[in-house]
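Team,

Forwarding the record for the chain on the shared tracking sheet. I've put the sequence and predicted structure together so nobody has to dig through attachments.
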Amino acid sequence: MALSGSCLCGGVRYEVHGRLTEVINCHCSMCRKLHASAFRTRAKVRASDWNIVEGQELLKFYESSPGEHKVFCSTCGSSIYTKFDANPEFYAFPFGTLDSDPGVRAERHVFVRNKAPWFQITDDLPQYAENP
């Protein structure tokens, strides 16, 4: 069964056909700023299991740090996925753009040392200062 997702304006639609790994809640300052949120829940998926169904021409790339490229919709600004020069066979993508239930939940909180001071983590997931 494929997962489906889309951006805010609906111009970009994607499907994920593979297994999701490394499902985390990331509290780093880049994720917080990119998603205008306390944290980003994301998973990794094989690039070969990722398919842009519609809106490829709307995608823009931003190199947020050397070798790490954030891909977003140029119309509405929704974050679609991240690609890595050092590990091109995997993408990371935010759960916030999913239109279907991924059937998995976050395994841990990472970069908690950068957590927003106004947010309190209230679940029992393991917490790490960095990403182990």
